[in-house]
Amino acid sequence: MPAAYSYDLRKKVMEALDEGESGETVAKRFKIGKTTLYEWKKRREKTGDFQSKKPGSVGYNHKITDWNAFTEFANEQGGKTQSEMAKLCGNISRQTIHRALKNIGFT
């Protein structure tokens, strides 16, 4: 993935747009893609700034956060299948139960 454009460049580009220069002309002058330019405009309209997004993935929302309680649950329900344990936990998939059991070393 290429590096993000500098904030200084973004600022100059947005100032040129604010002064009335067309998007196509600004994109050519600063050697950026028109799509990039319009993404910055949209981000500024939405958030009030055109700062780059933070790199990397945001991950996923972990369903199991209390590992002591889950370990106790696993010990109590150890004779059940992962699917049965997932149903007992509520809104958790069998795969999540599998990863959690692996995480606590439950076999």
Explained architecture:
The protein is mostly helical and 107 residues long. It has 2 domains: 7-47; 67-104. It has helices at 7-18, 23-30, 34-47, 67-76, 82-89, 94-104. It starts with 6 loop residues before the first helix and ends with a helix.
Blueprint (SSEs and pairs):
Elements: H1 7-18, H2 23-30, H3 34-47, H4 67-76, H5 82-89, H6 94-104
Summarize the helix and strand pattern as letters: HHHHHH
Q: Radius of gyration over alpha carbons?
A: 25 Å
Shape: rod-shaped
- Rounded to the nearest angstrom, the distance between the terminal CA atoms is 40 Å
Low-confidence stretches: none
Count of the separate structural domains:
2
Give me the secondary-structure category: mainly alpha
Our estimate of the beta-strand percent is under 5%
Overall pLDDT score: 87
Helix content range: 55-70%
What's the β-strand tally? 0
Major sheet: size, sense and barrel closure? none
Which quaternary structure do these chains form? Answer: single chain
Instruction: List the total number of helices.
Output: 6
Please supply descriptive tags for the structure shown above.
107 residues; 6 helices; 59% helix; rod-shaped; 2 domains; single chain; mainly alpha
